[in-house]
Amino acid sequence: MATALQNTRMLLRRTLSVKKNEILARNICFTSTLKSKKDEGTLKKDDEAKEVAAKNAKQKEAKAKLNMLLEAMSKESQKAFPAESELALATPKFVKKNKPLKTKLISTKIDSEMLQAVENVSKTFSKENEELKKNLIAKLESITDESEVARLEPFKPDKQKTADLNSLLNTLKVDVKKPKKKAPESHLAAVKIDNVYGADPSGIFRNANFKEESGTVSKLTTWEILYQKELELLATQPPSNGFQQMILWTKQGKVWQFPIDNEQGLEEEAQVGFHEHVFLEPYLKPWCPRRGPVRHFMELITVGLSKNPYLTVAQKKEHINWFRNFFDAQRSILIETGAIPDVPSKSPPSLSA
Amino acid sequence: MATTIMNRLFNIPSLICQNAAQLLKNGANNAVKLDQPVRNNWTDWRMIKDNKRRKLLVQHAPDRLRMQAIKKNEILPAEIIEIGQKMLEQLPRDSGITRVRNRCAITSRPRGIVTRWRLSRIVWRSLADYNKLSGVQRAMW
Questions:
Q1: Nearest chain B CA: its distance from A198 CA (Å)
Q2: What tens digit of pLDDT does each residue of A133-144 get?
Q3: Does residue B77 sit within a domain?
Q4: Radius of gyration of chain A (CA)
């Protein structure tokens, strides 16, 4: 806990160190004697107070600046804008004065030159129009009155005007403050990539030697299998509804085709002719004796196989071959019992002679 | 629990033969854990045994057929028949078709099986009532 306090103190010190320097400098400028060093706690308090004071001073300065700006702006606006302006400026209520027409238009407030200009303007527009002259003169007089009043009085910021100007400023989007710390621009951002694969290869990895795994590390086989299964599951989305399931099965060929064909899936077997199934005697011919119990037995076997629609031709051949091998193995016994005629033969594996 | 452990011990030789490839692999941890229950997709052990029998049946069916043909024979000499008989005995007992029992696929019930659906009558009835069996309707005439 003590360390936390110390940390906070350090942080405060760092943040206030800059301000402290400023404040110190200011104090040095404006005071004759320097303040002596105090304890940490009091110093901190002083710094805080100084900070507040500095803030207030800054605000005042800012306000003064703003006021100056507004003054300048308002004066300019009064000159630049026409008499009937968009801004809701205070307009004088015009009061008609019934002056004798014969008397020359003399006004003490406006300059003589201005009067002459007014007369010329009225002449150009309409010779008879005395009212025009009167209006113009009156307006000019009112304006001069306003300016004199403003000059004499200390400037009080008109809230309405300031509000209008502020709105104007907001619309103009004037950047008052800019962040000093800019984000460090990455070097990658500067490169404009138009065509990613158009440039030449950099050849960074041309001379690289990637070490392969030395030998086979003891693997976890079950984990490997499960990992592969998981990968497959992730890659293939299972069907989310019955329709998708039916579609998948149709593509896999698991679904009955209409009109229903009982031999669906047995297209290969359908191409095999019945003669191959039924006529199995040629498979007996090379080895089986023409007479004897063995022949009798094998004849029965072939009859049975020929009548069997559930086996393929290959399976039937396999059966016959097995019996051939079996009888070949039991040759001696067969000869002893007399099943096979005991005649030495030149031709190799043949029971028949 | 003791029975399951004994079963596992008895099954070890056959299991070794069947899974020899996996066992001989490098780094495969094949220690039998006797303190955990064995997890599988079957309802009960009888179902598992029945399944094993069916697999053996498929494996040895052609050999069995040929040897039976030799055994159940009156034409061939007696010695040959005897030899055939002995060869048949050498085959595993579980490869015999009579040992296979049509059990319910869900409850493993050995009796009262509706063959076409491979389900016990109770399960069949419950499914039929919930309209899960195609073309099955309550009888009424």
A1: 48
A2: 888 888 888 888
A3: yes
A4: 57
Q: In the predicted model, what is the mean pLDDT of chain A?
A: 78
| Backbone conformation region of residue A253, classed left if phi is above 0, alpha if psi is from -120 to 50, else beta | left
Sign of CA dihedral B114, B119, B122, B123: negative
- Nearest C-alpha of chain A: how many angstroms from B50? 25
CATH number at residue B59: 1.10.287.1480
Binding-site residues on chain B for chain A (CB distance < 8 A)? 22, 25-29, 62, 65-66, 69-70, 73, 75-80, 83
Q: Are residues B96 and B109 in the same domain?
A: no
Structural domain total, chain B = 2
The predicted structure's pLDDT at residue B72? 94
Q: In the prediction, which pLDDT does A36 show? A: 45
Containing structural domain, residue B67: 43-101
pTM above threshold 0.95:
no
Task: Indicate the SS3 state at residue B113.
Answer: strand
- Residues B50, B94, single domain; the answer is yes
Residue B56 placed within a domain? yes
- Which pairs with CB-CB distance under 8 Å and at least 24 residues apart come from A148-156? A155/A67, A155/A71
Same domain membership, residue B114 and residue B96: no
Of residues A339, A298, A292, the one with CA closest to residue A320: A298
Residues B48 and B91 in one domain: yes
Q: How confident is the model at residue A37 (pLDDT cuts 50, 70, 90)?
A: very low
ipTM of the complex: 0.74
Q: Are both B61 and B84 inside the same structural domain?
A: yes
| B26 is a domain residue | no
Q: Please check whether residue A109 is in contact with residue A144, taking contact to mean a CB–CB distance below 8 angstroms.
A: yes
B83 with A318: Cβ contact below 8 A: no
Q: What's at A235, amino acid-wise? A: A
> Which amino acid, residue A37?
K
Residues with Cβ within 8 Å of residue A114, at least 6 apart in sequence: A140
Residue in B with minimal Cα distance to A216: B26
Within-domain flag for B124: yes
Residue with tokens 């400028």: A29
- Please tell me whether the peptide bond between A157 and the residue prior to it is cis, using omega within 30 degrees of 0: no
The pLDDT tens digits of the residues spanning B18-74 come to: 677 666 666 666 777 778 888 888 999 999 999 999 999 999 999 999 999 999 999
